[in-house]
Every structure is written in structure tokens, then in C-alpha cells.
Bifunctional NAD(P)H-hydrate repair enzyme
Amino acid sequence: MKIFSKEQIYKGDKVTEEQQSLPPSELMERAGLQIFNWMHLRMQGAQVPIHVFCGIGNNGGDGLVLARHLITHGYNVEVYVVNCGNSRSKDFLTSYDKVKDVSKKWPQLLKCETDFPDIHRDDIIVDAIFGIGLNREIESWIKALFNHFKASSAFTLSVDIPSGWFTDKPIEDNEGVVRANYTLSFQSPKLIFFLPETADCTIQWEVIDIGIDRDYLMTTETEYELISKNEVLPMYKPRDKYAHKGDFGHGLIVGGSYGKIGAVHLATRSVLSSGAGLTTAFIPKCGYVPLQTSLPEAMVITDADTNKITAIDFDIKPDAIGIGIGMGKFPDTVSALKAFLKNNKAPLVIDADALNIISENNDLLKLIPENSILTPHPKELERLIGEWSNDFDKLKKASDFSTKYKVLVIIKGANTIIVYGQKKFISVTGNPGMATAGSGDVLTGIITGLLCQKYNPLESALFGVYLHGKAGDLALEEYGYQSLLASHIVDYIGEAYIDLFKQPEQPQQEEVEAENS
Ligand SMILES: NC(=O)C1=CN([C@@H]2O[C@H](COP(=O)(O)OP(=O)(O)OC[C@H]3O[C@@H](n4cnc5c(N)ncnc54)[C@H](OP(=O)(O)O)[C@@H]3O)[C@@H](O)[C@H]2O)[C@@H](O)CC1
Ligand SMILES: Nc1ncnc2c1ncn2[C@@H]1O[C@H](COP(=O)(O)OP(=O)(O)O)[C@@H](O)[C@H]1O
Ligand SMILES: [K+]
């Protein structure tokens, strides 16, 4: 699913109005009606007090259309206009007149704190104050209104985007924003729903279809895209009946040091479980017996050293190599990595200590093959690209790094983001149970396994992150957040593949029948 920027959303409105020859404020009518349908489906006429707070732009206009439908359907509604300026939009004014036609009561005008209504915790707040048109910091009395919402503990439903948040930059005042229980977002989710610093703007979100021109939506390239089952399913490569293990490549995991052989076990098992035909681990001697014993399907090549990697020499021809896991940064290992990068021709997944070594030896960056996949967690990313001032800055820096060195960067975490030059893909699979030792090693193994099977680097990164998160989600059902281990994620890679064809993806877009008001 694409994430459109606010400029693209405004353009989509214009294109739609032209293509569909829409009368003025028709899109606002659709938006307000869809929100009403959503509420009506759930409330079925319940007389819970609903406080609809409207700004004076088009977000406020949506709120007024909603309020009109709620009033005509007999709901217990109070409508407020938050008087935040002088420039009432044309469509807002049209909607304002229409509300007056159906109600004996005028919307209440709020100008300062003494105007605030009492809100009970069992009431419902509809936040239609600011949408994507927020263009400056908010006055203190409106921030106080947002705090009044919070203090009430009432369920807060935001229209399009919780008020006070920008779509494309951080907020200055953490207190001066609405934090919604639910946000109904038009046509596209907003980027801020997925970034660590802003995702608490709403607990849940859903996309509402207001009939924006299909061609425009299909053909417009976006900087951000969500990756879920629908996006990865077309990448899946089915197996031929007469397939041979040689068809699925030979994966190599290079890593490990004394006390960190388990990491290599996890990654190597993940290469196999994601479908590589053959898998070899290159490790220091101390890992030979444990790895051969615990993972009979894998082959093992050992370094001359017992405890660490000192020279990465092997006589196999791997189709992909995952490197860095549990490897340490011993001086001999640093030299071994340098020598390896100078000679290597195979596609690479670079993780953990290999990333840390590269961060400390920037000259190694030019030795990394084009389209290599780097899988840093946030600390490793900071070592690579430097500090960032906020999440938007982080994404820009990661994009610039990816463009400059022609590599893919996978920013791991909740909503892992795959950075491919200026394009960013956001994963929706995964859960906090995966915040456990070794789960990153599993990801490296899965992506290495996909590269072996001739998925191209972008597909390997996207499909790999999807499968990893999905396996974690399926494992969660059995183990729960606390007991989920990285090896359980490996156990569920197979289920994650099977699930691709098992259940249709849950819609992120509510298909609500348009109801005549
Ligand atoms: N396809 C779609 O998605 C559709 C989207 N639609 C809806 O349109 C919404 C966007 O509407 P919008 O452009 O009118 O902007 P909106 O968010 O209402 O805010 C602008 C108002 O706020 C004001 N203002 C701004 N900052 C302020 C501040 N800090 N403090 C005080 N005031 C401030 C600003 O004032 P001004 O800067 O002009 O003085 C102006 O009055 C979108 O989110 C969605 O809900 C549908 O209706 C149709 C299809
Ligand atoms: N809260 C979370 N939600 C979803 N995925 C998570 C969460 N925390 C961690 N993960 C995933 O778990 C993995 C952790 O990787 P990493 O920190 O490198 O672990 P390790 O070094 O122990 O292997 C990443 O793929 C990350 O996306
Ligand atoms: K809003």
C-alpha cells in the first residue's frame, strides 16, 4: 500500500474532481459520510454523547458533514467550531450551512479555555480540528483543548490524522497534540503512524476509501510504501516438481567467535529454512563440534584459529554470503574482513560486527558490492550514518547513505524500514516478542537464503523482512511476548510461507457500504 505525501493527496483531490466532474465539496461529503458509516456500524444508534470538534479548514468541514449525518440519524451530538483563525475554507462554509439546516442548535464557537465543554470519560470525542493542512505551531489555548481531551480519557476518534501532527516533520511540543484511540485516514495511511517517535499519535488506524481517481493512485510513485502479504505474494517463486537442491543455491554464513557460536547456528538454520539448497557456516574451530552436532543439515568450514576468525578462506562457490554475526572486532578479524571484501564477488548480507567494523573503517565501504544488503539495528545504523535529530532526519540520512554507496539498508525495529536509495518500504509484520537475543541473526539468514534462490536483492530484502516478521507473529500465538525466542522464529518460517496462500490479508481498508443519509 502506498503512503502518499500531503502534496500528492492534494493533487489527487484535484485530479479526481476533474476526472469525475465532481460538484464542489463532493469529496468532503464522501469523507464525512464514510466516517459516519464507520461510527453508525459500530454504535447502532447508541445515545453516548458525541462531541465533534471542528477546525475551520477542510478537516473541520469533514467533521461538520459527519455531525450532520449523526444529527439526522438521531445521535446525541454536540458540535464545536474551534476558532483558530480567520480563513474558513469554502467547503467548510458550505458544510457549516448544511449543519444549520438540520439542527436547531448552532455549533458552539470555542475561542478560549473558558469555552471548553465538560467531557465525561464515557463520551466520544471526534477530532476534526487540523488535518494535513497544519502549517504552523499551535496556539496555547488549542494545546490546552488537546490536554482537556486527554484529561477526560474519553475515546478519541481522529479524522484523517490526529490534530497537531505534521505529516512530514516532527512536532515541537509533545504535549500540544491529540493522541487518538483510532484514526480514520483518507485513501492512504500517514507516515507518522509508523515511526518510533510519532507512532503514538494513534493506537489504531484504518484507511477509508473516498474514491480518489484509481489511475492517479496506481500510477503515482510514492517515496514510502507499506509491505504486507499483498506486496510480497507476487514475488514468491514456486518450486518445480523436478527441482534439485542445486537449483536453490548455496548459502554461506561467516561469523562466530568463542561464546557466540549460537548466533551462527540461528543464521545458518534460517538460510536452510528459508529454502537454500545447500548451506555452509564458516566459523572458528571452537564452534565445529557444537554446530555439526546441533545442525546436521549444515556443512562447516573452520578458520585456522580456535576462538575467532582470522582469515576467511574457503573453496566453495557460495551464491550468497551473510557475514558479521557474532564475529567480534578482533584486529585479526578486521584484517580478515578487509581481505575478504577485496576478493569477494558474491552478493552480501552484512550484519552486526561486520557493520561495526565497516563503521570504524570507512574505506571498506567502497569494497562493498553494489546492492549489498546491510541490516543494522538502530545503534549500528548510528555508527554507520552518524547521529540524527529525529526520525525524518534518520530516514533522509539513511536514504542518502543508500544512494551514495548503492546498498540497501534495512533499519530494524518495530516497523522495519527497507531503504533502497530514495525509496523506503515499511514492514507491517513483526512484534515486540521479537525484541530478543538472536532475532536479527535469523533475519540475516533468511535474506541470505532468499538471495541464494535468485530473488533479487530488493525482493530478498522485502520478502525476507516480511517472512521474518510473519514467522515472529505466528510464533507469538504459541509462545507469547515474553517467551518467544529467536529459534522459535526459525521454527515458524515454514508456517510463514504456508500462510502466504492460506488466508487473504486482513483489509486495512474498511469496505463500508455507502448508506443513504
Ligand atoms: N483526499 C483527501 O484526503 C481529502 C481530504 N479532505 C480533508 O481535508 C483536510 C485538509 O484540509 P485543509 O487543506 O483545508 O487543511 P486543514 O487540515 O483542515 O487545516 C487548515 C486550516 O487550519 C488552519 N491552520 C493550520 N495550521 C494552524 C495552526 N497551527 N493554528 C491555527 N490554525 C491553523 C489553516 O489556517 P490558515 O493557515 O489558512 O490561516 C486552515 O484554516 C484533510 O486532512 C482531510 O481531512 C477532504 O475534505 C477531501 C478529500
Ligand atoms: N518491537 C519490535 N517489533 C517488531 N520487530 C522487532 C521489535 N524489536 C525487535 N524486532 C526485530 O527483531 C530483530 C532484532 O535484531 P537485532 O537487534 O539485530 O538482534 P540480535 O542482534 O540479537 O540478533 C530485528 O529484525 C527487529 O526488526
Ligand atoms: K484531525
Notes: Confidence is low (pLDDT under 50) at residues 509-517.
